[in-house]
Every structure is written in structure tokens, then in C-alpha cells.
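Hey, resending since the last one bounced:
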Amino acid sequence: MKTALRVGFQGGETSDALTDLIREHFENLEKLHGRMTACHVTVQVPDRHHRTNNLYAVNIHIVLPGGINIDVDHTPQADDRYAVPQFAVNDAFRRAKRLIKDRSKKQRGEVKTLHERVERTIDRSDQ
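The C-alpha cells again:
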């Protein structure tokens, strides 16, 4: 099933090169978790006139089956690497991939809970 991808740009003009990069990353995510039901990517373009914040912000909202939302919306404000739009896109999708992998492991029961770890520690006889 093909997931609908929406790409939006805020505060500036659209970029075909960035849209293609986003589409490429999205296709990789779709291979990782093909059951996504929606994906919306927003690129916040810095205002070139004010120069106070020249960093790009990329927000990703992914919906998985069962109404599970994956949101990537954190952009470090003191990191000048985010002034390069390709870096901002790559980093946001790297974070999204990590969140999807973690969520998938949790759904499959591959993540240890705190109680399991505590019980094993208590049950050990070190004497």
C-alpha cells in the first residue's frame, strides 16, 4: 500500500531538490515499516531578512496503524549544522527511523521492561 506523503514549506519557497530528498527518505521509511497510514513533512525555512534564526526546522508527523503517532519536531537551536537544509532533513528522518524501529520492537515485545530487569537482579544469588 502506498502511503500518502504531504510536504509543505513554511516561511519560504518550495524546493524541488529538498522535496526529492524528502521523498527518497520517505521511501526508505516505507520499506522499513510499510504499514504507515500517513506522513506529513513540514520544512520551516528561515527568514533571510531578519537573520536572527538562520536554521531550518523539519517536522515529521507519521501515523501508524492503530492510531499510533510518531512525531519528530526537535531542532537544536545552538547547532549551526541546521543552517544547511539537507542536514536538517537527513537528521529529522534519522530520528523518525529510530522512533519507528523502537516502536516496532516494543510492539513485538522485544523491549525489556524495568520490572523484568529488576526481578532478574533480585533473583540472582551472588553469595
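Strands lie at 5-10, 38-44, 57-64, 68-72.

Sorry for the duplicate.
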